[in-house]
Amino acid sequence: MVDPTSGLATLLQVIVTFLRLSLFSLGGGNTLLAEYHHLAVDKYHWITNTQFADLYALAEAAPGPSSMIVGLLGLGAGWHHGPMWGLISGFSAEVAILLPSTVVMVMAALSWNKLKDEPVRVAFEKGLGPVTLGILFSVGLTVLRTADHHWLAYLVSVLVCALMLFTRISPLYFMLVAGVLGGLGIIQR
């Protein structure tokens, strides 16, 4: 029997958790962000709400796939058992989230052209758009609730959202302004 407070138990928990989620990441890794938050912060208490917001910001700022947050969550889950457990858990989480869905997507891509003109393919592709957009809207609300805790932060978030939708201003400028406002202490969590 594995001690439920051991590094091995946490590693197994991380692997099973992300294997289960792997096949549900339609639209990319960020579509599961609300579930990642629920599991990592509320259910398993691997990390705090503030740490989740920081890891999300780090994963989004760094070059690479959006699923990078999963490795960081795994790192956070195992870290309190020691740095080595953190690294093993982080790597295992990333493999667990990417491997099954990648295998399924490769198999689907190889056979997808066979259904080129079939009504089921057209319906499936048209149906996934609204579903993915709804999930991403939910993710946006999760990020907003996780990161913003002050009226000025909410105001800045709404303003940036409106500017992103109705202008062609680069998101990098918004990141710069938010960084300066945070660095000056004007916006705090």
Structural overview:
The chain has 189 residues and is mostly helical. It has two domains: 7-147, no CATH class; 149-189. Helices cover 74% and strands 0% of the residues. It has eight helices and no strands. It has helices spanning 7-22, 33-43, 49-61, 68-79, 83-112, 119-147, 151-166, 171-183. Helix 3 runs antiparallel to helix 4 (68-79) and helix 4 packs antiparallel against helix 5. The relative contact order is 0.11.
Shape: flat
Order of helices and strands: HHHHHHHH
Give me the count of strands.
0
For the CA atoms, what is the radius of gyration? 19 Å
How is the main sheet built?
Answer: none
Strand content: under 5%
Please report the distance between the alpha carbons of the first and last residues: 42 Å
Class inferred from helices and paired strands? mainly alpha
Q: What integer is the average pLDDT?
A: 85
Domain module count: 2
Fold topology:
Layout: H1 7-22, H2 33-43, H3 49-61, H4 68-79, H5 83-112, H6 119-147, H7 151-166, H8 171-183
Descriptive terms for the model:
189 residues; mainly alpha
Quick structural overview:
With 189 residues, the protein is an all-alpha fold. It contains eight helices and no strands.
